[in-house]
Amino acid sequence: MKTHKVFAAIILALIIASCGNNSGTKKIPFSLQIKNAKKTYKPSDELSVSITNKESLEIDSVVYSLRNKKVAVSVKNTEQTIPLQKQKLGKEQLKATVYVDGEEYEANTEFTLLASKKPELYTYKVLETYPHDVNAFTQGLEFEGDTLYESTGKRGESTLRKTNYKTGEVLQQVKLDNQYFGEGLTILNNKIYQLTWQANKGFIYDETTLERTGSFVYENSKEGWGLCHSDSKIYKSDGTERIWMLNPETLAETDYIELYTHTSRIPKVNELEWVEGKIYANVWEQSSIAIVNPDNGAVEGVIDLNGLQEKVTQHPDLNVLNGIAYKGEKDILYITGKYWDKLFKVQILKK
What we know:
Oligomer: single chain
């Protein structure tokens, strides 16, 4: 008798679960179509979009959006043209919100937007060589006047420091707690911002004293890699193809760009530097720097720095190039790497 009751209870539970699942599933009667769809697009292209109405419902209107920004509105279901000229590059999701008799439906489709031109290629010429702390696992590098600020990594070894770039002398430094792995830094309005790698946390310091005055957390980005800034934004890389824009007042991530050439994405974006209106982005484990349009993520140039690592003292712990600093000198960068014993002043030249 007990067995029959248990069996009946199981059957009843399955029926209830099944009914619950069916009642919660709402079949979408629309799909979003791009006319003459392609795998990839260029900024000079336009998307011709409309809604396929599977059940012949009377559509009141359709609102098309990218990254939650309205890009087109259709009364009824007329075909719409969406220019891509001012859109950010990368893999994007176009969303259509369809309104029918007080009901709201959503349909989506993806497309990839590539840069319009092949990047310019650059090489370098070493102008000066300076000593650099061979024990510094360099993560971030930035000038403020003649003082070179540096962030170093590795748990138990991470620091923020001021240095004399000509002599390599560490003028002042603070050590991070052992749990933190230091990453990129930038300096804006007399404040130093320093990232940590996987702790979802950054620190704020007084530029003069290096006293820690605050901290901030990451939002949508998962890790901290590189930092730089313009007059109005802070830019943050997270080890993917994305560079995030941060509000300097709140440090909230307001948007992002994705790094793409005319053929493909650029992953593992690391150390960043702001140079004359462009983002210079070091690509991790590559002896190269991408010159990036901060408005849309287009890689407009690539600096080939192969051979530079061979000019430092070779030792078992030697690691990759990872330090870009700009001092305001036209076509001049200061470059070092993780556990490099030299800092190079290089001139950037077109190939």
